[in-house]
Amino acid sequence: MISTVIFASLAVYSWKILGFLIPDRLIGERGRLIAERMTVSLLAALVMLQGFSTQSDLVLDARAASLVVAGALLALRVPYIFVVLAGALVAAGVRLLGL
Amino acid sequence: MSRQVISTSLSVGLATGLYGVSFGAIGSAAGLSVPAVMLLSLLMFSGASQFAFVGIVAAGGAPITAISSAWLMGVRNSFYGLRLNTVIGPRGLWRMLAAHLTIDESNAVSAAQEGLRDQKLGFWLTGGAVFVFWNTATLLGALAGNLFGSVEAWGLDGAAAAAFLGLLWPRLKNNLALAGIGALVALVAIPLTPAGVPVLLAAVVALLPIGGKK
Fold first, then answer.
1. What ipTM does this complex have?
2. The pTM is what?
3. Bridge partner residues of A58 (DSSP)
4. Could you give the CA distance from residue B110 to residue B101 in angstroms, rounded to a whole number?
């Protein structure tokens, strides 16, 4: 298992270092725009993945409540750390109540 | 240097630490040894890839599936690297270290800053803070895995979802349509495609001329 972990880590690192090795002149304004769009689109997908999925299934559970509360707090400009803490408290609270 | 960058970086580090505990606990619940879980946090150091890896292992998937899922999940780091290379312009060993610290959080905090100086500072501080907190938390989670019972009872999975939403939030103003399409594509793809593919499809959305800026 250790060698599998090391191999997978190298595979992930290969993406990271690749971005730093491609020359700046090959990127340009269009490349920068794509990188920004990529960040937004992937973060949106990760919110969905982390909020509404288990393995390969869509689910609606306590994490949905976490996201609703987190969204409301972010709209109120509450600092990031409290938003994340609220995410944990809400999910734990909803499950404690057995909802 | 701006105090706001320092406080944001530390907050992000603390917040990721919170769900680093959940990663450690999930990893050991998946049957990985404590050293294997720690190696993932130290060497792979990319939350979504790590969660993908242990998710496949927990489901009894083959090593090659675990490796390729983690790898596919990491593709976005290339694009962060493209941006960060122009912002930071690291050389030699610094470049290798910068690449290692290139993750959702360090890129997001850096990109949210106004001046170049704060963008650099935001990257290094956030990358460093997350590395320290994430690894400490992973160790705690892995060791206490059985004590915790379930990460769900503690809401640690809810914290992870809120953390990603918090990173996305400042970018929504200019990219609402794009974020909506990316989210929708991921939702549709989750039940239909293997782990890792929904995120890749969202990456494809970013390359298409849809959900245009502003």
1. 0.86
2. 0.74
3. A53
4. 12
